[in-house]
């Protein structure tokens, strides 16, 4: 089962405007609100979910569950969870993982720094769903401009109609990376376990 990191998700809601002539609420056809699907913030009940974003109808929600599914895919190929969190009442989400396959960095010839796999997404269009490699830990919303401009190392999925299919493709790619890594390990193990005949080896390389 996929580990759920966030105890809430998002959903669209219709928008209305007050018609000054009839004093009635009229639906706004081309836009929608993105809100929390449950009425809690940090475990505290609220009467109404805050609006995270007002978006055109073409905006595609990337749900917390989809974000968590991708995090789980990385864990399935051997990555280890470090931490996760949110900024601006859930408008931006992040998660960091690490992998033994990523070599550590030596800082100042003494301190060893580890590269972290950082996944980010948003519910207000400020961040696409993307994966980054960075040494820094995520600690404050001031890092958001960096996340937005940083070059991805795997995929960038924007909040468009193609998001669903691109998420599916990204998950397939993550699984394929895991399969290739396992095959490489198995090949090296087989090679190490295979006895080498010196004469046959010399004959092969001597032509």
What does this structure look like?
Helix 1 packs parallel to helix 3. A hairpin with a 2-residue loop joins strand 3 and strand 4 (44-45). The mean pLDDT is 81. The N and C termini lie far apart (55 Å). This protein has helices at 64-76, 144-149, 163-193, 198-206, and strands spanning 10-19, 24-36, 40-41, 44-45, 51-56, 80-87, 92-98, 105-107, 111-113, 116-122, 129-134, 156-157. It has a five-stranded antiparallel β-sheet. Strands 1-2-5 form a three-stranded antiparallel β-sheet, with no helix packed on it. A two-stranded antiparallel sheet has the order 3-4. The longest helix is centred in the C-terminal third of the chain and has 31 residues, at 163-193. It is α+β, with helices and mostly antiparallel strands and 207 residues long.
Low-confidence stretches: none
Radius of gyration: 24 Å
Helical stretch count? 4
> Count of DSSP E strands?
12
Q: How much of the sequence is in beta strands?
A: 25-35%
Largest sheet, described in full? 5 strands, antiparallel
Q: Strand order, biggest sheet? A: 6-7-10-11-12
Molecular shape: elongated
Mean pLDDT comes to 81
User: What is the helix/strand order?
Assistant: EEEEEHEEEEEEHEHH
Helix content: 25-40%
First-to-last CA distance = 55 Å
How are the secondary structure elements laid out?
Elements: E1 10-19, E2 24-36, E3 40-41, E4 44-45, E5 51-56, H1 64-76, E6 80-87, E7 92-98, E8 105-107, E9 111-113, E10 116-122, E11 129-134, H2 144-149, E12 156-157, H3 163-193, H4 198-206
Antiparallel strand pairs: 1-2, 2-5, 3-4, 6-7, 7-10, 8-9, 10-11, 11-12
Helix pairs in contact: 1-3
């Amino acid at each position: 089962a996929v580990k759920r990191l966030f105890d809430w998700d998002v959903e669209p809601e219709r928008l209305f405007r007050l018609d000054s002539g009839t004093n009635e609420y009229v639906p706004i056809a081309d836009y929608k609100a993105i809100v929390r699907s449950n009425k809690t913030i940090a475990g505290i009940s609220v009467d109404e979910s805050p609006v995270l974003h007002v978006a055109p109808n073409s905006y595609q929600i990337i749900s917390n569950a989809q974000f968590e599914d991708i995090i789980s895919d990385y864990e399935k190929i051997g990555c280890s969870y470090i931490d996760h969190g949110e900024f601006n009442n859930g408008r931006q989400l992040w998660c960091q993982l690490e992998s033994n396959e990523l070599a550590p960095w030596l800082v100042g010839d003494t301190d060893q720094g580890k590269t972290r796999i950082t996944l980010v997404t948003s519910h207000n269009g400020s961040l696409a769903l993307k994966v980054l490699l960075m040494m820094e830990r995520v600690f404050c919303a001031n890092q958001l401009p960096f996340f937005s401009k940083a070059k991805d190392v795997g995929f960038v999925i924007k909040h468009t109609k193609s998001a669903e299919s691109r998420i599916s493709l990204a998950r397939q790619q993550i699984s394929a990376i895991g399969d290739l890594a396992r095959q490489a390990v198995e090949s090296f193990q087989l090679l190490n376990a295979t006895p080498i005949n010196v004469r046959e080896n010399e004959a092969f390389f001597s032509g």
